[in-house]
Amino acid sequence: MGVSSSWEEALESALGEAIEPDGIPNLAFVYLSDRFTAYAEHIREAVLDRTGVDTLSGTVGIGLCATGQEYMDEPAIVILLMELPEGAFQGLSIDAEGEMLPINGNHDHPMAIVHIDPRNRVVKEGFEDLFPEAFLMGGLTSSRVPGVQLTTEHTMIGGISAVMLDSSIQVHSMVAQGCMPIGSTHRITQATDHYIFTLDDRPALEIFRHEMEQAVDEFGEIDLSDIFVGFSIPNRDKPEFMIRNLVGFNEDQGILAVAHECATGQTLQFSLRNRESAVEDMRTRLEALKERLDGPPKAALYFSCVARGIHLFKEPNFELTLIRETLGDFPLAGFFCNGEINHHQLYGHTGILTVFA
Question: Mind listing the pLDDT tens digit for each residue in 19-30?
Answer without folding.
Answer: 776 678 999 999
